[in-house]
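Input/output pair, single chain:
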Amino acid sequence: MVAAAVARRAGVDETVLDEVRLAVGEACSRAVGLHRSHDITAPVTVVLIEEEKAFSIEVGDAVPGPGSGTPLSGRGGAVGGPGSETDADSEDEMGLAVISGLVDDVEVRSVPDGGVIRMSWPATPVVAAP
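Output:
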């Protein structure tokens, strides 16, 4: 709800606010699921970024990845070695598919201390009346 309220204030079109809310919820659920499957107690991070012509949200997890810039898919904790898909991997992939379906501009990457999903929407700054 906070993300949608800030998106509205940033000038994101009213017609996509439900998509903002759903995408942020899905990204947060995915990050929490990854934390639970890896026994990580660190909090999930959510950063709201207002820029001149865009509004972005970054949802970060603390699951160590293979390296900076690496796609996040398949980080759910594979049990059977390379190439095996676990329930966590499947949920991870499904979450990314849902987010990609809701957001046109999405970047998913691994950073040294976890993973980040950055979602962006065009915004038209609201000009206050004099």
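Residues 5 and 43 are 22 Å apart (CA to CA). The first helix runs from residue 2 to 10.
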